[in-house]
Amino acid sequence: MVFKVSFHVFVLQVYVQANKEAEHSEDMKHAAKDFFRQLEQHESQAMSLWQQFREITVKEYQHIYKRLGIHFDVYSGESFYQVQTQEVVRELQSQCLLKISPKGTGVVDLSPNEDMSNICTLLRSDGTTLYITRDIAAAISRKEKYCFDEMIYV
């Protein structure tokens, strides 16, 4: 079990360290953006690497959940819904809800006075999505699939 704890600690440390380095390195920021773009374009090498990490991560989560007496029938995080994000973007555009900010990002105005004082960014200036974009696609897909009356989003 030491490996299980160590694995999670290791992954978290790598994530934290990479983000710290990216704050001070344009090369690191560029490499991360480029890799994410490759994922969104389903380039085989990036997808293969992502799939390997996802499988390891899900297995490790299953071990933790098992110890807690929890079982899930389906493991489908936000990344599973990346393909559906373009439909979300098209729908928001068709309803004239998605606007382009001065920074070139795709945003939805959430301010009560429609003055762009409170926005939610759904697209980066390079057109790639964010967690929230994929989360919206996931919520829509899950509603259609499971027909629930209420969803609690944490």
Molecular shape: globular
Instruction: Give the beta-strand count.
Output: 3
Q: Specify the number of helices.
A: 5
Tell me the helix content.
55-70%
Instruction: Tell me the structural class.
Output: mainly alpha
Low-confidence stretches: none
Mean pLDDT: 88
Q: Mind summarizing the main beta sheet?
A: 3 strands, antiparallel
Radius of gyration: 18 Å
> How much strand content do the residues show?
5-15%
Write up what this structure looks like:
- This protein is mainly alpha-helical and 154 residues long.
- The mean pLDDT is 88.
- Helix 2 crosses helix 3 and helix 4 packs across helix 5.
- The chain is built from 5 helices and 3 strands.
- Strand 1 (98-100) and strand 2 (106-109) form a beta hairpin.
- The chain has helices spanning 2-24, 26-40, 44-67, 85-94, 131-146, and strands at 98-100, 106-109, 119-123.
- Helices cover 57% and strands 8% of the residues.
- Strands 1-2-3 form a 3-stranded antiparallel beta sheet.
- Residues 1-18 form the signal peptide.
- Catalyzes the attachment of arginine to tRNA(Arg) in a two-step reaction: arginine is first activated by ATP to form Arg-AMP and then transferred to the acceptor end of tRNA(Arg).
- Keywords: Aminoacyl-tRNA synthetase, ATP-binding, Ligase, Nucleotide-binding, Protein biosynthesis, Signal.
- Residues 13-154 form the Arginyl-tRNA synthetase catalytic core domain.
- Belongs to the class-I aminoacyl-tRNA synthetase family.
Topology at a glance:
Blueprint: H1 2-24, H2 26-40, H3 44-67, H4 85-94, E1 98-100, E2 106-109, E3 119-123, H5 131-146
